[in-house]
TrEMBL record:
<comment type="similarity">
    <text>Belongs to the YciI family.</text>
</comment>
<dbReference type="InterPro" id="IPR005545">
    <property type="entry name" value="YCII"/>
</dbReference>
<feature type="domain" description="YCII-related">
    <location>
        <begin position="1"/>
        <end position="111"/>
    </location>
</feature>
<protein>
    <submittedName>
        <fullName>Transcription initiation protein</fullName>
    </submittedName>
</protein>
<dbReference type="Pfam" id="PF03795">
    <property type="entry name" value="YCII"/>
</dbReference>
<dbReference type="InterPro" id="IPR011008">
    <property type="entry name" value="Dimeric_a/b-barrel"/>
</dbReference>
């Protein structure tokens, strides 16, 4: 079964790409995911300051800068994984470094 792991954190404390590349915990997580052979796709998203939100109301397209919701935590990236079951997806999510200070939402993918 496929699961989306939504990597959520507070961008004010989020490490840079360079810091993540040098983080042995993050590298161990990536290595474990590769060993499992379950990673289908994954990307880190740019900060919410670069986001654009699009809504359509009564036929009118409304475009605004930034995120739709005002919250401290934002989705900073996502990984799509193929797992045997939810337990394995939770195990993978728990190993992600962001789970230590942010959160990793595990959501099944419609197939």
């Amino acid at each position: 079964m496929k699961y989306a792991l939504l990597i959520c954190d507070d961008e004010t404390v989020s490490p840079s790409n360079e810091e993540l590349a040098d983080d042995p915990v993050h590298q161990a997580w990536v290595d474990d995911l590769e060993r499992r052979g379950g990673k289908l796709v994954g990307v880190r998203l740019r900060p919410v300051v670069d986001a654009t939100t699009v809504r359509v109301r009564d036929g009118e397209t409304l475009v605004s800068d930034g995120p739709f919701a005002e919250t401290k935590d934002f989705v900073g990236g996502f990984v799509i994984v193929e797992c045997a079951d939810l337990d394995e997806a939770i195990q993978i999510a728990a190993g992600h470094p962001y789970a230590r200070w942010g959160g990793v939402e595990v959501r099944p993918v419609w197939e």
